[in-house]
Amino acid sequence: MEWGNYSMYADFILLGLFSNTRFPLLLFALILLVFVISISSNTIMIILIQMDSRLHTPMYYLLSQLSFMDILYISTIVPKMLVGQKMGQRAISFAGCTAQHFLYLTLAGAQFFLLGLMSYDRYVAICSPLRYPVLMSRKVCLLIVVAAWLGGSIDGFLLTPVTMQFPFCASREINHFFCEVPALLKLSCTDTSTYETAMYVCCIMMLLIPFSVISASYTSILITVYRMIGAEGRRKAVATCSSHMVVVSLFYGAAMYTYVLPHSYHTPEKDKAVSAFYTILTPLLNPLIYSLRNKDVTGALKKALGRCLSSGTVSTF
User: Fold this and answer.
1) Which residues, 6 or more positions from 231, have their beta carbon under 8 angstroms from its beta carbon?
2) 159 contact partners, CB below 8 Å, separation of at least 6
3) Residue 14 contacts by C-beta under 8 Å, 6 or more apart in sequence?
4) CB within 8 Å of 308: residues ≥ 6 apart
5) From the CB of residue 119, how many other CB atoms can be counted at a distance below 10 Å?
6) Coil, strand or helix: which one is 313?
7) What is the rounded CA–CA span in Å between residue 161 and residue 163?
8) Contact indicator for 258, 275 with CB cutoff of 8 Å
9) What residues pair up with 92 in beta bridges, in sequence order?
10) Whole-prediction pTM
């Protein structure tokens, strides 16, 4: 199908993060370092949760799923960007852009729902500790994970076909480092206002549903913590929730800027900076926030390192 001199299925050109920077090699090295650390730290988190019996709890099971999503999430975007910069190949095929668009929406949506449902785990642990084994059984944990993936998949399956069916005849240059919806819609030569309104409502709902669960859970948690007599109990309750709240604030805040704020607040430079934060930095920060603020995870890591060092010492003799 043709519109003027443009084919609907022609390749796109990703202008990327490096086009306006004065130090592209330094930025390349930093992003590569962040990518390697992010993949490594999330993989270590998953391995620790699988190996250490003290981490075989619902909270850490859900955390391992979050780490798995982070690995897929950053791998969907960063490798293509780095290879394109290194090889000087900024083109991405229509099929490749569609696949990246779908995976990004699915994984981002799954994380939205998982983070929202993880607050229910904290609510049960603090407000109904005696019923925790029943209310957060293995079956319930599996249902939470399936619901998160299902919600993300619905988002991807709904928005990707509609976005990619628009005629992109204005230009094939995407002023971004991956195929994100707002950047793609700017290339369309047809009116996308109705779709943008529908997408705006969809994003509001995707934010509102998990945010409602989070708000209800943490309101009950705050009431319970306020009624606690011992200062030690309050401290533990706040500590167990603070990591989750930090991650939620980072991820939801960036998403609200991208999909909720009016166009007048956006510029290509700001959009790329915010997108880089929640697609590149957030997968790095998640395991660091949970591990550095959690004695169980740091204890499991020290135990695993001790085993490695002891086995290495034994093998030298």
Assistant:
1) none
2) 105, 181, 199, 202
3) 80, 81, 84, 90, 91, 92, 174, 176, 177, 178, 179
4) none
5) 23
6) helix
7) 6
8) yes
9) 12
10) 0.86
Q: Which of 84, 68, 99, 108 is nearest to 32 (CA)?
A: 84
- 51 forms bridges with which residues in the sheet? none
Angstrom distance (rounded) from CA 206 to CA 41: 28
Q: What is the DSSP letter of 279?
A: I
Residue 10: DSSP 8-state: P
Instruction: For the beta carbon of residue 36, count every other beta carbon within 10 angstroms.
Output: 12
SS3 (DSSP) at 192: coil
Alpha-carbon span 164 to 97, nearest angstrom = 9
Nearest one of 80, 83, 84 to 101, comparing CA atoms: 80
Please report, as a single letter, which amino acid is at residue 142.
Answer: L
What's the N-to-C CA distance of the chain in angstroms? 70
- Dig out the tokens for 97 from the structure: 């852009």
Handedness of CA 88, 103, 254, 251 (dihedral sign): negative
Report the sign of the C-alpha dihedral through residues 43, 97, 113, 78, in that order: positive
Q: Which residues contact 250 (CB under 8 A, 6 or more apart)?
A: 277, 278, 282, 285
Q: Please name the helix (run of DSSP H) or strand (run of DSSP E) that holds residue 144, with its range, or none.
A: helix 138-164
Taking only the tens of pLDDT, the chain with its 317 residues reads 444 445 567 789 888 887 777 788 888 999 999 999 999 999 999 999 998 888 889 989 999 999 999 999 999 999 999 988 888 788 999 999 999 999 999 999 899 889 888 888 888 988 888 899 999 999 999 999 999 999 999 989 988 998 998 888 767 888 888 998 888 888 888 888 888 888 878 777 777 778 788 888 888 888 887 777 666 666 766 766 777 777 888 777 877 777 777 767 778 788 888 888 888 888 988 888 877 667 778 888 888 777 777 765 545 44
Tokens of 258: 């991208």
Which residues have C-beta within 8 Å of that of residue 125, sequence separation ≥ 6?
A: 59, 132, 136, 240
